[in-house]
């Protein structure tokens, strides 16, 4: 695999040389993969670029991309684009230059990629990971940004650590499907935003435990200042927008479900009350007709960004959809038939919405989002 390490820098002369040496050493240990390093420098004033250029003179697999200081998000987006378009990256690994994230975890992260994962996140929030020497204010700040806003408000549940830079990302069918031009982010919110965008491609996520350390050299870019406040507000704004976008999807899902309910209710009345078909058959057939409606309109509208196309793919996925919906069919037929037997046929149209709202909708939404409209199958 062609692996491109992306290192954003601003005034990191104390660290960048050692980082480049470390990445070169790791490249020598993982010989089956081709390693390149892209330093994205925000016009440092301390001589960082000069150090990188000296390394470039000795190692043709090191590259330097320069530009104005506009924020970490701006730098990483430029780095992702350059790595894909110019360096033909298959895997990109962004990381900070200050060794707070230990780059020696790279081989472990690449093994996860080889196992079939598409995004491997270095995590402080799983067993074996953690932080060192964090005070109460920093822990509270991190909990608010990571757990409350990214996890709860935005609802990005694919991983537990949302705000770290260090991760390995597969390019094909994932990073190359993220519209980087539409990512209007400047600060560290890029970390959670890129995870969310990748989740929409159907990427398979995992995390590896990492101990996050304090930098030993150079000056931290974090501090309670005007830029910090801007970054906080941008993080909150991004999380709210993510929640709004996801709510739109659930709204569409609800509308499609309501149409399915109308089909279910009308055909159930037709089959059971007018045609006097057997109770179990009426419930099963009316439910199947609503399933066909749900599949069609969810594919065309609710999950249009992941829309299944082509006759063969649609037929295969519809079969898959029906197998997945067998649970809903069983719930409707079993509970409906039993309910009518216990309460009587006059309660049939009351039982129907109750079963749908409290049993079928939660089941279907889980199955649709986790199995049907996913563009990437998990590799074993």
Description:
The chain is an alpha/beta fold. The chain has two domains: 2-222, Alpha-Beta Complex (Spore Coat Polysaccharide Biosynthesis Protein SpsA, Chain A), CATH 3.90.550; 245-372, no CATH class. The protein is built from eleven helices and nine strands. It has helices at 16-29, 48-58, 72-85, 106-114, 136-153, 190-199, 226-274, 279-302, 311-324, 326-343, 348-372; strands at 2-9, 34-41, 62-66, 91-94, 119-123, 130-131, 167-170, 205-209, 211-212. The protein has a seven-stranded mixed beta sheet with strand order 3-2-1-4-7-5-8, sandwiched between helices. A two-stranded parallel ribbon has the order 6-9. Helix 1 links the parallel strand 1 and strand 2. Helix 9 packs across helix 11. The longest helix has 49 residues, at 226-274. The protein is elongated and about 85 Å long. The chain starts with a strand and ends in an 8-residue tail after the last helix. 39% of the residues are buried. Residues 375-380 have low confidence and may be disordered.
């Amino acid at each position: 695999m062609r692996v491109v390490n992306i290192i954003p820098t601003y005034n990191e002369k104390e660290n960048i040389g050692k980082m480049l040496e470390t990445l070169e050493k790791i490249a020598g240990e993982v010989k089956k993969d081709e390693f390149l390093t892209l330093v994205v420098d925000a016009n440092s004033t301390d001589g960082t670029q000069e150090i990188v250029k000296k390394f470039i003179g000795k190692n043709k697999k090191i590259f330097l991309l320069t530009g104005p200081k506009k924020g970490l998000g701006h730098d990483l987006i430029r780095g992702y684009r350059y790595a894909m378009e110019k360096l033909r990256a298959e895997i990109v690994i962004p990381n900070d230059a200050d060794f707070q994230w230990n780059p020696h975890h790279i081989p472990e992260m690449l093994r996860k990629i080889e196992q079939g994962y598409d995004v491997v996140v270095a995590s402080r929030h799983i067993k074996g990971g953690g932080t060192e020497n964090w005070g109460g204010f920093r822990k509270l700040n991190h909990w608010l940004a990571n757990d409350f806003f990214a996890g709860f408000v935005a609802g990005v549940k694919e991983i537990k650590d949302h705000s770290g830079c260090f991760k390995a990302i597969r390019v094909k069918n994932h990073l190359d499907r993220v519209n980087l031009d539409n990512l209007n982010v400047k600060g560290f919110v890029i970390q959670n935003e890129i995870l969310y965008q990748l989740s929409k491609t159907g990427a398979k996520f995992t995390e590896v435990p990492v101990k996050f350390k304090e930098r030993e050299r150079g000056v931290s870019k974090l501090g309670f200042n005007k830029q910090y406040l801007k970054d906080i507000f941008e993080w909150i704004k991004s999380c709210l927008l993510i929640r709004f976008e996801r709510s739109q999807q659930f709204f569409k899902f609800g509308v499609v479900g309501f149409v399915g309910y109308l089909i279910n209710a009308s055909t159930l009345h037709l089959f059971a009350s007018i045609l006097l078909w057997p109770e179990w058959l009426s419930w099963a057939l009316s439910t199947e007709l609503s399933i066909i409606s749900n599949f069609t309109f969810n594919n065309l509208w609710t999950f249009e960004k992941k829309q299944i196309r082509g006759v063969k793919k649609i037929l295969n996925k519809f079969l898959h959809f029906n197998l997945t919906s067998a649970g809903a069919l069983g719930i409707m037929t079993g509970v409906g038939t039993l309910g009518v037997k216990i309460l009587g046929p006059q309660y049939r149209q009351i039982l129907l919405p109750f079963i749908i709202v409290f049993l079928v909708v939660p089941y279907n939404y889980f199955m649709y989002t986790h199995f049907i409209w996913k563009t990437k199958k998990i590799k074993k």
